[in-house]
Amino acid sequence: MIRxxxxxxxxxxxxxxxxxxxxxxxxxxxxxxxxxxxxxxxAENYMGGxxxxxxxxAIRRDYPLSLHGVGLSLGSAEGLDAxxxxxxxxxxxxxxxxxxxxxxxxxxxxxxxxxxxxxLPYTEESLTIVARNVAIAQDALGRRFLIENPSSYxxxxxxxxxxxxxxxxLARRTGCGxxxxxxxxxxACANLGGTPEDYxxxxxxxxxxxxxxxxxxxxxxxxxxxLIDDHxxxxxxxxxxxxxxxxxxxxxxxxxxEWDKALPSLAVLLGEARAAESMARARVDAxxxxx
Amino acid sequence: MPALRELQAAFxxxxxxxxxxxxxxxxxEDGMAAAERLAVYRNNVQWSLADMLRDTFxxxxxxxxxxxxxxxxxxxxxxxxxxxxxxxxxxxxxxxFLAAFPPCRELAYLxxxxxxxxxxxxxAYAADxxxxxxxxxxxxxxxxxxxxxxxxxxxxxxxxxxxxxxxIWRLNRPGADSDETVALASGGVHLEVSRRGPDVVFRALDAxxxxxxxxxxxxxxxxxxxxxxxxxxxxxxxxxxxADLFGDAAxxxxxxxxxxxx
Lengths: 291, 262
What we know:
The structure holds two protein chains of two kinds.
Chain A: E1 17-20, H1 23-32, E2 38-42, H2 51-62, E3 65-68, H3 82-95, E4 99-103, E5 106-109, E6 112-118, H4 124-141, E7 146-148, E8 155-156, H5 163-174, E9 177-181, H6 182-192, H7 196-202, E10 208-214, E11 217-221, E12 224-228, H8 237-250, E13 255-258, H9 266-290
Parallel strand pairs in A: 1-2, 1-13, 2-3, 3-4, 4-7, 7-9, 9-10, 10-13
Antiparallel strand pairs in A: 5-6, 11-12
Chain B: H1 4-16, E1 27-28, H2 34-56, H3 58-64, H4 66-79, H5 94-99, H6 110-125, E2 148-152, E3 157-161, H7 165-172, E4 189-196, E5 199-204, H8 207-217, H9 222-232, H10 238-247, E6 251-256
Antiparallel strand pairs in B: 2-6, 3-4, 4-5
Helix pairs in contact in B: 2-4, 3-4, 3-6, 3-7, 6-7, 8-9
């Protein structure tokens, strides 16, 4: 039995819109304190000391924070890096984040860290391994994780479990929540086949604790086109449509706009957050009318 | 059907060595060749690490030009991929790699420029530590003083070079725009890198002070570090050197080395 109670931190989460905090925006946010519901950072960027960590402390005084891990490699057959878990736990202790999340993917094998979120075959073996790693991480960190659906560019022939079912079973076995990245759903379905709406509908509603939004771009490869999840442009119209559907299905869960490549001004990023907020608000108003 | 552990090892070979052989058969093509699909992941890994190295070693990049740097970075990534997830710590071995990289053989000073850039990068990210005041040592008996081991702030780094790499770096750092030239034969330097407040700084030290601080940073006792400094300069001023260490907020901890048997 690996399901554990990891407290009710989630009860304090404001269901508002956040943005991914990136280094070039930090000084402006500290100086101007714009109205943003919360901020999310990649945990691995703050595992040392110095001015970066001091700035994060300053941000944390003004905003709720979410720690988004990119390096735990929860899908590694060889298990987790104990030293990395220790550093992650120390950062959680320091920042007291409202949410802690990671990915359904792997990066580490044979003492090498491949710095990408690599795809897993969806098999019973993978499910056993990921569930064990998630349980170990949740126990070590004393927090419930939200696990994000990946953007994918390939599928393994020996996969037997549809991805949303794999995530649902992972949540059932470990008590983890899910981070529904609607851009990743759009990208993965475009690249591998499948209908984004069906994918969304197959996720277990109660487990979804966060939504991610971001941009992607098409790239021509080998006579076809792949959508690349590069977080380098505004959220696409089809992804906004999917976000509306996600709001209707999952309710007002905290939602985040991410932008990494070709990072725009903070004003542009906050404009995307406002667009998300008005969609979320429209959903509240629609519910109020229906009540 | 491969076990996950074997599949992940094959994925590593595909990404780092360009050998898709063990993996392609397990990838569903769905209208696009497996090689095209794997190339997306390979490009993500290669380009993001190469970008990171370019950001960490901007003066090296400028000295060898972008295209050569990209070539060297590609070889480095293949031979020394990251071992841990904190990528701010990736690149510690790049200077040694350059020193042994045959195409760089003519640029004898290049590895030391890379070492300086690595120390400044590492100093920015080094663990925080609260500096001690000299009074912290008040309880140490005089007879134990030689056994004192002073812990320096993690941002301190030391580099001795036979080349004037501080001047080479200044003329090739990001944003530098000067036609000034450096005579390679103009002499070597003993450099100390550290963090002052939020800023990383480096400066040239007197050779004996360098030997003293470098030995302390490596964990030597006060006695051993003093011997190292006196070997360089018989007039080394120990009292002044210790006062300067505290003045620089360099000391964050101390212990006593075990007493050696008489």
